[in-house]
Amino acid sequence: MTPSHLLDALFPAGHAVRVDGPVLAGTASGPTGVVAVLGTCGAAEVGVEVALRLAGELLAVLRAHPGRPVVFLVDTRGQRMSRRDELLGLASYLGHLAATVGLARQRGHRLVAVLFGDASSGGVLPLGFMADEIHAVDGANPWVMALPAMARVTKLPLERLEALSRGSAVLAPGLESFLRLGGVDQRWEPPLAPRLAAALQRPSGPDARDLLGHQRGGRPLAAEVARRVAAAPGPVGR
Amino acid sequence: MRPAALDRRSWREATARRRLAALLDPGSFVEWLAPASRVTSPHLATLGLPVAFDDGAVVGEGRLQGQRVLLAAQEGAFMGGAVGEVHGAKLTGLLRRALRERPAGVLLLLDSGGVRLQEANAGLVAVSEVMRALLEARAAGVPVIGLIGGAWGCFGGMGIVAGCCDALAMSEEGRLGVSGPDVLETVKGVEELDSADRALVWRTWGGKHRWLLGDADRLVADDLGAFRAAALELLAAPRPLELETLEASHRALARRLERLGGASDAREAWRSLGVQDLDQVAGMEPEQLVRAEGARRGIR
């Protein structure tokens, strides 16, 4: 789905979103007023410049429009892989972007992510996967690493990995897997606008992706492990 | 460099549990979901791969000069400290606990290649849950400090986790990045990066470079006591998650791009920063470099 088709489908009442290279930023008419729109397109590689621009756009929303909901539109093949980005400290730029999203949540901005293309690794972690709710539309393709590269790194034979990945939510790339793991909440079919409106109007709650992953059978242990650590009894007499 | 393998005070050579013990007041560490709980990765078992009873992550609480802190330590000896479903959930649970209990801080002893590819998708989601829980703890006023000096460095999604912390302490031997040398060479070719070029790897990801640029707040010797001292200092100087602090970070990162964006190598970047004696940087002890740079920046 192209960004303009997606914007028309999500915001039939109108939108003013600039597409500037790989970065999308602007505003749109939401169910209860103006929402901010921020994201990437064209299977963007998120390097230091893109990360800084996204963080700058979001900081501007926080400064000028307290509480305004933000919709993240996600299409990224991951962090930009280059010696220059690493030299300049990409970890700090991506961490800064994620921290800005964390601050937006703390200040009461409702955050909804819509995956509409690739959604991979260091591109999806600091923006899309930081949202309160994460949904997918036609064309969404979350993944970590292509199987041939994974075979090289893990030293598992490719044929074996391909066989194993069939039916395995942890190994097979794609939306089905991430739905089962709870990493993506819902797959949205058209019409998209009412789906988004409902998501924007739900109250924010704690991160429940691990519970979802348990219910859907993709992650049998995450929720239970996190709960046990969060609630383990401390030493007597503290 | 000292012969680290013989050095019983070396952070790099120590196991995750030894690092925790050395960091904390004697006998104060209490582990949660310890190996006796036998919580192991279901996905590694499916692949017929060995599992660990702690899944490579040690979490618990202890006292640091009397202050109650929560801690997580990644064990590089198990799958390079990589994050799978259970490993990640232990870190997330710890950070959620911090949000509720408001300890003096959370210390993350990072030693990880990033997402565990054998359970890739679950690892990626797990890292995002760690990031969200970390930032929620920070937003509630609990400082989160990262310590990086293990053999695996801190890469992939865990590099971004490090970038979410209040502050980082690194040793010269520590490395921090997103795409590590092996991944860069595999994906982009040896022309982009020759991972066998140790000096290049060191000055692209190593602790001194990260400290000179400002990614790391403390540069310390590869020494258990030095990390303890740095952790105490950083706990006392939190960087709260507020609009003003993030706007200041933003300006600093923008300025870094303006000044160093054209640099093709760390040495060029250091020259742009005004570092003296470029040839001496590699051979200097961390304390020497910190002193020399401190004096120079103070004068300027």
Biggest interface pair, residues each?
A: A-B, 84 and 90 residues
- Taking pLDDT < 50 over at least 5 consecutive residues as the criterion, the unreliable ranges of chain B are none
* Sequence stretches where pLDDT stays below 50 over 5 or more residues of chain A: none
**Rg calc of chain A:** 19 Å
Number of strands of chain B: 7
Order of helices and strands of chain A: HEEEEHEHHEHEEHHHEHHH
Share of residues in strands of chain B: 5-15%
How much helix is in the residues of chain A? 40-55%
Outline type of chain A: globular
Sheet with most strands: strand arrangement of chain B: 1-2-3-4-5-6-7
The percent range for strand residues of chain A is: 15-25%
Number of strands of chain A: 9
End-to-end Cα distance of chain A: 56 Å
Order of helices and strands of chain B: HEHEEHEHEHEHHHEHHHH
CA-CA gap between termini of chain B:
31 Å
Count of helical segments of chain B? 12
Judging from the principal axes of the Cα atoms, what is the shape of chain B? globular
Largest sheet of chain A: 9 strands, mixed
Treating each run of at least 4 consecutive H or I residues as one helix, how many helices of chain A? 11
